[in-house]
Design a protein that fits this description.
Layout: H1 2-14, E1 24-26, E2 42-44, E3 61-62, E4 67-68, E5 77-84, E6 101-108, E7 116-125, E8 136-143, E9 149-153, E10 163-173, E11 176-183
Parallel strand pairs: 1-2
Antiparallel strand pairs: 3-4, 5-11, 6-9, 6-11, 7-8, 7-10
């Protein structure tokens, strides 16, 4: 007799497997809740699967653009040199990780003059120094004279250097102003 009572108690606890869906409210679309609204049954899809969402962002997510920084999406940029008008070496910058496109835009500022040109070279190094023995040339691009605003770009750079900088040579013409940007 005791075994019969025990079996009846187990059946009562386990219940009918179809009753498990009673805690779930199957809907085709996700249910939205108003502020201060009491939650009723959990939201499930039409197959009875409980809908869950990640309540906090992952560490790599870009909250503004709603994407992980290692994924595709919005193009980002970092200025490597700006307003360069002489043969010079820029400050060392830490480039973005991954493949990057580097473009130089030259503006001739003297009343729309088209008479200026420049060559820029991108260098990389594992050390935070521009010493000759540690630098590796990654790209050289020449922007010829001929337009008030013109540009040139490097092929995509995939080399993972910790530090990069720009060196300019061959500055010519009236009031050149070069800006070099890395896009990733």
């Amino acid at each position: 007799m005791m075994y019969v009572v025990f079996i009846i108690m187990l059946l009562a606890i386990w219940g009918n497997p179809n009753e498990a869906t009673a805690i779930c409210n199957p809907t085709a679309a996700s249910v939205t809740q108003n502020e201060n609204q009491m939650m009723g049954a959990e939201s499930c899809d039409l197959s009875g699967n409980l809908r869950t969402t990640l309540g906090t962002l992952l560490s790599c997510e870009d909250q503004t653009n709603n994407l992980c920084m290692t994924s595709g999406g919005a193009v980002r940029s970092k200025t490597m040199a700006s307003a360069v008008s002489t043969n010079t070496t820029s400050a060392v910058t830490q480039p973005p990780t991954g493949p990057k496109s580097i473009q130089g835009i030259l503006t001739c500022n003297a009343g729309g003059s088209t008479n200026c040109g420049i060559t820029f070279t991108v260098y990389g190094s594992a050390l935070n120094t521009q010493a000759t023995g540690t630098k590796v040339e990654l790209c050289a691009a020449t922007i010829p004279t001929g337009a008030a605003v013109t540009s040139s770009a490097c092929p995509v750079i995939t080399a993972p250097y910790l530090y990069m900088w720009i060196e300019t040579t061959g500055v010519a013409g009236t009031s050149p102003s070069l800006t070099v940007t890395a896009m990733y």
